[in-house]
Amino acid sequence: MTTPIRVLLADDQHLVRAAFAMLVASAPDMEVVAQAGTGTEAVELARGTKADLVVMDIRMPGLDGIEATRIIAADASLAAVRVLVLTTYDTDEHVVDALRAGASGFLVKDTRPAELLDAIRTVAAGEALLSPGPTSRLIARFLSAPEAPTGAAGGPEGLSERERQVLTLVARGLNNTGIAEALGLSPLTAKTHVSRIMGKLGARDRAQLVIVAYESGLVTPGER
């Protein structure tokens, strides 16, 4: 039997948390291990429960979701914990800050229930989740005020031609299966390439690969 995805919900609105908790609990492959109403509680509970994934609201009183994400991403004992941030608007400028801080993806709060569950599965599996529509606008804003993203130390200069192709496809939102189909590879080979690229660039996860690809100019906003 597959171990359920352990989910921590962090949102300062009790009714929102309750709705998300009911939704997550309805999925046979997930369980809610804790709920937090502040960023400080989210960090403490992430450490205490060893959740696989934190669904994090960006705007919370005191320590907000961005700073909470930064603390979680910087904690070596929480290296396996992924953060999926939620925002009210898909053009929220704070989403870029959350990605810099170490979030693995983002969704808007009015997303459909099935999409939220799929997003949790995607991020928990180590994939980046960057809503295709607003991502280019957000990355464009990021490029207008460049700042080195957390954990992404290098650029694509040291990558092989094949690795650059794979990185380009990661930045366009393709998963390992999509990359494999586009390049005529097996999914396992595509996964190996992605892992090797992450190691070379010092990236924590695929979301940071996307940032590196845009920041370096390998992929430009609006490019398909």
From TrEMBL:
Domain of life: Bacteria
Keywords, sorted A to Z: DNA-binding, Phosphoprotein, Transcription, Transcription regulation
SUPFAM superfamilies for this protein: C-terminal effector domain of the bipartite response regulators, CheY-like
Response regulatory domain ranges (all copies): 6-124
Record has Transcription regulation as a keyword: yes
Transmembrane segments: none
Signal peptide: none
Domain HTH luxR-type: start-end pairs: 152-217
Keyword DNA-binding on entry: yes
Matching Gene3D superfamilies: 3.40.50.2300
Database matches in SMART domains: HTH_LUXR (SM00421), REC (SM00448)
UniProt modified residues of type 4-aspartylphosphate: 57
Stored PROSITE patterns: HTH_LUXR_2, RESPONSE_REGULATORY
PANTHER family: TRANSCRIPTIONAL REGULATORY PROTEIN NARL-RELATED (PTHR43214:SF24), TWO-COMPONENT RESPONSE REGULATOR (PTHR43214)
Protein name: Response regulator transcription factor
